[in-house]
Amino acid sequence: MIFSAIVLVLLTAAVASLPAIWLISRQLDRQAWAQLDQGRPTTQALYTARETELISLATLMAQRPTLHELLLKKDLDALQDYLQTLQIGARSDLVIVCDTSGSVVASVGYEMSAEACALNKPTDVYSDIRMNIPRVLLLAMSPVVGDDADIGQVIAGIALNNTFAEQMRAQTGLEHTIFLDGQLVSTSFSSDLDELSKATRQMATDGDTTEGVRTIFNLLGEPYYALRLPIIDEGLEAEVILGVGDIIATRQRLVWTLAGSILSIAVAGSIFGAYLARRIGSTFTSLTEAAEAFSKGDLDTPVMVETRVREASLVAQALDSARVDLRRTLRQVQQEKAWTDQLLDGIVEGIVILDDSRRITFFSPGAERITGWRREQVIQRSCDEFFRPVETKDLFRDLIPSPGRRCRILVELADRQQATLAITGAQLAPSGAGEAEVVLVIRDISEEEAVHRLLGHFMANVSHEFRTPLSSLAASIELLMDQASDLTYSELHELLNSLHLGILGLRTLVDNLLESGNIETGHLRVSPRPMDLAEIIGEAARIMQPLLDKRDQFLSVELPKTIPMVHADPKRVLQVMVNLLSNANLYSPDGTEISIRVKIQDGWVQLNVADRGSGILSEHRDDVFRRFPHIDSRADEVQQGAGLGLSVVKAIIEAHQGQVGWKDHPGGGSIFWFTLPSKREE
Description:
Elements: H1 2-62, H2 65-73, H3 76-90, E1 94-98, E2 104-109, E3 123-130, E4 133-146, E5 149-159, H4 162-172, E6 175-180, E7 183-187, H5 193-198, E8 201-209, E9 212-219, E10 222-230, E11 236-243, H6 245-281, H7 284-295, H8 310-346, E12 350-354, E13 360-363, H9 365-371, H10 375-378, E14 388-389, H11 396-399, E15 406-412, E16 418-430, E17 436-444, H12 446-483, H13 489-521, E18 529-531, H14 533-550, E19 554-558, E20 566-568, H15 570-587, E21 593-601, E22 604-610, H16 645-655, E23 660-664, E24 670-677
Parallel strand pairs: 19-21
Antiparallel strand pairs: 1-2, 1-5, 3-4, 4-5, 6-7, 6-11, 8-9, 9-10, 10-11, 12-13, 12-17, 14-15, 15-16, 16-17, 18-20, 21-22, 22-24, 23-24
Helix pairs in contact: 1-6, 2-3, 7-8, 12-13, 13-16, 14-15, 15-16
């Protein structure tokens, strides 16, 4: 086995070295071509800059006033001298002045034929062959304008010769050659053009690219990479060249170094691996026995391995640490399971899990509390046996909502009672080959449904309470608007009294609605201060007097000789009095007495409001001070009111730390009472 491992290591190293050597060679080639690719935009930018500079130079020359004057005077000698001065200052290889007929008037630098004057665009390439040597110039033209008319043109040019190629090499760091129609015209190499033209070229591996043609050639025994690209005009090409002799030599050294290193490391690794294999092999049995003990659930016995091999000792220590961590994790899982069981026990909602056959596989304590069924009764039995819909003949399994949705179902519980359940469905991972298991979260919303119905009844009452006085107010106002001038004083007084009663009823209803909202949100606030209770009673009587007069009811007030000041909020106490007197006015027969009595008891002042109605029915006595439920003292009459007045009274009095209650009135009717703290003397 050790010998096989050594052979395998050697083969692996040999196989791994070949791609490494190929990758190194490939990377060096890519770096060389990348350097040429980086020189391409630089070269193009330099040619563009030269072209732009030449255009600017021609334009600047054409705008010289002296040139205009000499050209108009046709002073050719002076013009020739002036052009020499311009050439020296502009460092141009060629300056030509042509007249409007296309003839050369004067020129400095290269001798040019009249063909140069035929240039009809800002820049162009001009070439000719003299003594079998092609000569290429880059020309730029600018018209000479005088008195709003062209009087000639100025042409500036630079020669694309060896000197120009050497300048490009200095700026790009790469050798530079220029071709015209495939013929070599200039180069930055020290070799002559014939040697460079005879160099055998071959296409590079990458071949043509969208940015130029890549070639490889040898010149005087040195290898070069070249990238040829078009510039300025059709037929004119520039070639950037990189000598790769040093790169190839470096590649060979790296290849040999890498191959030798890989081979040395493979041999050393094989020897050292064989040595370690012998040392570590003796501990495998002990580690295997410890692992088998883990699989059997023995997490208390520590891992003990006698070995001098440091690596094996570290493995044994790691295995023992894993044993300790696994034991700790197992205990945490057990604790979390116990906590989860407690959590499920405490969840109000019920959780029921159904398998693909819709049999119950899990039934939480919350589900037991809601349905009345015990877990032992329902496990592994069909859900249709224990959830029986009441308002439909469909089975419960057909009413289960899809995952993520919620529905309400009226079902019959274990005690034959009916309950409205809100059921939300969720889907677990598929079990076996059947359908996915379904989790149902059930909640008893029977009370919520009752509250919704109660709220609807309350809104209907409130709408009625608003509509009746508003209709009366509208009718009275229309009557006043149409017949005010024809009404007598008593009729006007009756209409105004009707308006006052309607507004009074609306104000009482609105006050109760606002206070009910404050009570619901916990924003009810009282501002107790010393106040005279007799003044509040008088103000309440004044407010209620029109309502009492309407039904021929009379109010009697019985006060002690001295009434102590009470510590209360006058506005809130007045609201309490108005609510109690309004109820007494509403439920007392016409022509009866409504009485107010005040008593003093141990630092508290008790106020009683008694009516002569028919009292409160026995089934309503527990709901007298509840919100929304309307307590009608007469079952055979239509219910009136919004059902808020007494709940507001209770909240205001309890905010003053007082008490509120009611009792039957001897002889018929009800007595509602409340207490307020009296102001203590200093």
